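Private note to self, pasted from the team thread so I don't lose it. Backbone tokens:
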């Protein structure tokens, strides 16, 4: 029988992240499934650092809902990374699988099993550094490891290696290597490597931004010495075209980085469709949030500060891992001690272009630690979309189906950056409906970009500390 993952991939994992004795089980399934349709469950046994154990000799027993128990056996000396194929669910609903091995027990992430024709949810880490960044090189790992770990250890659908280019940290030869290895691992419909890099500015104005593209240009574009995020976008537009890239600001509340994105340097919603609201640095959602960065910029650079000015941004989250551990684990530099972030993308297929297009149109949401399902609408629009006040015939209704691995302790409805309603399900799944009966003409914000508007989004918090943030829905004048 063919090895899974391949012997070469097992070697990459064993060489760069040899795991010690098992302390945790991870079992991952697709977030959207159909009754009767087959899917794989990825089963991973981890050591205390989150590396795949080389000392696991047990069989992991997995209970499929309403069906049998299936087993997967691991051998000493081989990374405990495997998959169970041909699993299917019989009925519609929200389900988790449960797994056990000796004294270890775990639930899988939830799946929404439905006959409705809805897009898939593809999970990825848009922000991973490798040794090519030359930043904490003692902690980081190879590009080979980045892609192998993202696909097999983290069981992600897609990843972006966002190595630093600015201040002399990349050149043509490194870029060529980055491009070649990303092409090697890109496997459309199975696993996507999204072309990307990180650009910084000497002045700090606009903070640090990642650049994402559906394909690799011959060379990256940088504006480190004298530029800002707007001049970077102008240069990128000249180098390719406006629809061939977008930029994502991250840790906008980091001290000294001036992540306010002032009117002078805001490149507009097409070039900057989303903000990275959370990473291992912490959360930049609003001042006073429970997981802030360690050293915070004094200016108004939180996501809600930017949204309240009329900047139209959806949400993504990543790790910003400098240990090259996509979606979590590893021995990071001290400042990266918060929960790992991930991005959920809603699209019909798994290709570079479809992942790129979905984020460009804000068809995505952000999460930390867990693959939280959020499926719903606000005033009849999907998260990330907009409507006009004239389209409203009834008060805006927020409908959302939420499920997580651990119990959900809070679901907050946020309007214009302020929580207006909280539900406390204390269960791993919940279906909520809330109608906002406020006089909307009294709460509109005026902005130079959107005119009079309001926006809503939904925030989920779990017992494990995991959170998720839907992209907003905007109601415009
Ligand atoms: Zn760095
Ligand atoms: Zn970074």
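Design output:
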């Amino acid at each position: 029988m063919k090895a899974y993952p391949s012997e070469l991939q097992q070697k990459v994992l064993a060489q760069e992240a040899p795991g010690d004795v098992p302390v945790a089980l991870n079992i991952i399934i697709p977030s959207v499934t159909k009754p009767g349709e087959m899917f794989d469950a990825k089963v991973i046994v981890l050591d205390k650092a989150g590396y795949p154990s080389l000392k696991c000799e047990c069989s992991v027993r997995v209970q499929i809902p309403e069906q049998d128990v299936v087993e997967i056996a691991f051998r000493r000396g081989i990374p405990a990374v495997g998959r169970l194929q041909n699993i299917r669910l019989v009925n519609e609903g929200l389900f988790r699988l449960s797994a056990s091995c000796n004294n270890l027990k775990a639930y899988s992430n939830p799946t929404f099993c439905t006959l409705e024709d809805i897009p898939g949810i593809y999970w990825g880490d848009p922000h991973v550094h490798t040794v090519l960044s030359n930043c904490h090189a003692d902690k980081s790992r190879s590009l080979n490891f980045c892609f192998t770990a993202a696909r097999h250890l983290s069981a992600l659908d897609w990843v972006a290696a966002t190595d630093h280019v600015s201040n002399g940290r990349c050149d043509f030869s490194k870029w060529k290597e980055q491009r070649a290895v990303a092409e090697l691992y890109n496997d459309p419909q199975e696993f996507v490597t999204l072309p990307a890099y990180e650009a910084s500015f000497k002045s700090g104005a606009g903070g640090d931004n990642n650049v994402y593209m559906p394909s690799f240009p011959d060379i990256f574009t940088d504006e480190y010495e004298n530029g800002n995020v707007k001049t970077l976008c102008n240069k990128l537009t000249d180098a390719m075209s406006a629809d061939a890239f977008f930029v994502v600001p991250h840790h906008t509340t980091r001290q000294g980085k001036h992540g306010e994105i002032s009117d002078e340097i805001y490149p507009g919603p097409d070039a900057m469709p989303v903000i990275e609201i959370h990473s291992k640095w912490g959360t930049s959602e609003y001042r006073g949030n429970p997981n802030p960065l360690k050293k915070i910029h004094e200016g108004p650079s939180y996501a809600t500060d930017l949204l309240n000015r009329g900047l139209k941004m959806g949400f993504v989250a990543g790790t910003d891992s400098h240990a090259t551990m996509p979606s979590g684990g590893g021995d990071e530099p001290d400042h990266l001690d918060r929960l790992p972030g991930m991005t959920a993308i809603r699209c019909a297929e798994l290709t570079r272009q479809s992942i790129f297009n979905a984020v460009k149109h804000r068809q995505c949401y952000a999460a930390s630690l867990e693959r939280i399902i959020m499926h719903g609408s606000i005033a009849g629009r999907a998260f990330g979309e907009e409507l006009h006040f004239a389209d409203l015939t009834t008060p805006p209704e927020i409908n959302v189906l939420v499920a997580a691995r651990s119990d959900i302790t809070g679901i907050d409805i946020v309007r214009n950056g302020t929580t207006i309603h909280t539900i406390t399900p204390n269960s791993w799944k919940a279906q909520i409906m809330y109608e906002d009966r406020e006089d909307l003409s009294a709460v509109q914000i005026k902005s130079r970009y959107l005119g009079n508007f309001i926006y809503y989004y939904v925030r989920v918090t779990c017992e494990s500390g995991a959170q998720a943030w839907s992209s907003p829905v905007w109601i415009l004048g």
